[in-house]
Amino acid sequence: MRAEIGKFIDRGTYRKAPLFGGELPEGSYAQIVEIKPKQKVPRHYHEKQYELFYIISGDAKLGIGKEEYNAKPGDIYLVKPKTIHWVVNEGEEPFRLFVVKLNYFGDDSIWLSD
Order of strands across the sheet with 50-57? Predict the structure, then answer.
């Protein structure tokens, strides 16, 4: 099955487009996420889900735990449950990534104040 990027859902500083419309196995979810220029996704973590990030385009600072990376196209990252992570896009273009969520059974995001 070929993924079709459908309508993006706006979340303020970023937007996301779910992929495969419920055709993935239970506990899995895939989406394209775009962090808007000069925006960030605040520090947060997930109780049970893993997230696998594949960077499609743009450059951004990606924090995972105590590490901060200069993420660029072609990079792949894994975020384990209960690991704090965030993204800062200081560029003029959107930062686009493919996100696969594993052990996903609905939103279990815990947002932290900066």
Answer: 9-10, 14-19, 28-35, 95-102, 50-57, 76-79
